[in-house]
């Protein structure tokens, strides 16, 4: 049994998440408050003890570790020559946008979506084109409007789509049929499909995650898949990701970009950390999933019983909970800053994710249950006070 209950003080450790006031409880940016698996720490210590840290590049043991993780966990094996290392998923997205599309092109996303996608597009002089996910306010579920998606993919200036599977912030895992449909539309309209699968290992129940590279061969010639141990194993500062591109010409093109952007060189812990994670820390991930699932159920039942003005969107993946606050406000940024000011609870305002995010808050529940309970109490108090003043 691994330890997912100890509270580890993270203030004054250079943590972005915990750079907050003494009374504040951060439940925003996507990293976890759990200590990394001892198997990974051992591999890192061994590396540090070796004491010489010259330039490095990944070899077969790295690619075998990634490929066999996908075989074991997801029943799909990427070919080793499809893979290369990069220093992160977001850097890969930005680099691919620059290499694969032209200034002024449209890059399609499905809002509400991980806000940094917008930066990767806009900061490179491309336009964001969103085919917004459609929200059913009765079931609190999202779905894709495929007619709208096709219309937007068919626009001559649309040259790339960035898919998020599982989808941050709504916690939805796209089904294999949905992936095939998206993919066929991208192929039909000559759009490169970049699939960000960084949350793929954190699926709790229901539809299982289908790696995009596992689709039939004719459907994977236009895809760029990004995976990483960073969310799964809580090693976001490791800065190690793997890019999976089955088509050789596309792979060479994106790989060229990664190299000219200087994103292909691992730091001293990236290779041993990734290998240890994928080959030795599987059991830690399985236990983690149980912990997050318990936390998710705690959040859902607490909100149902204690905060009837909010609704937790049913989700089956990621440790990010998407909370419908539309009964309270149509400006979740205002609600977020009010709650932070009054209770110290720091969650993410849904506004940054676009689409109908102005009606939602996002709460990171990858913390010991006692910390989540503290967050829920603060949320309850914050909502009660907000109702009094609004
Ligand atoms: C969907 C998604 N992609 C990418 C990232 C960040 O990836 P990286 O740290 O490898 O750049 C995050 C972090 O929250 C994320 O949620």
UniProtKB/TrEMBL annotation:
Q: Where is the signal peptide?
A: none
Q: Residue ranges of the Aminotransferase class I/classII large domain? A: 35-371
Could you identify this protein by its name? cysteine-S-conjugate beta-lyase
For this UniProt record, give its keywords in alphabetical order, as a comma-separated list. Lyase, Pyridoxal phosphate
The family database entries (NCBIfam families) matched by this protein are listed as:
C_S_lyase_PatB
What is the E.C. number? Answer: 4.4.1.13
Return the broad EC class. lyase
CDD domains in the record: AAT_like
Family as reported in the entry's similarity comment: Belongs to the class-II pyridoxal-phosphate-dependent aminotransferase family. MalY/PatB cystathionine beta-lyase subfamily.
UniProt source species: Lentilactobacillus otakiensis DSM 19908 = JCM 15040
What domain of life does the native source organism fall in?
Answer: Bacteria
The top of its lineage is:
Bacteria, Bacillati, Bacillota, Bacilli, Lactobacillales
The cofactor required is: pyridoxal 5'-phosphate
A single GO molecular function term of this UniProt record: pyridoxal phosphate binding
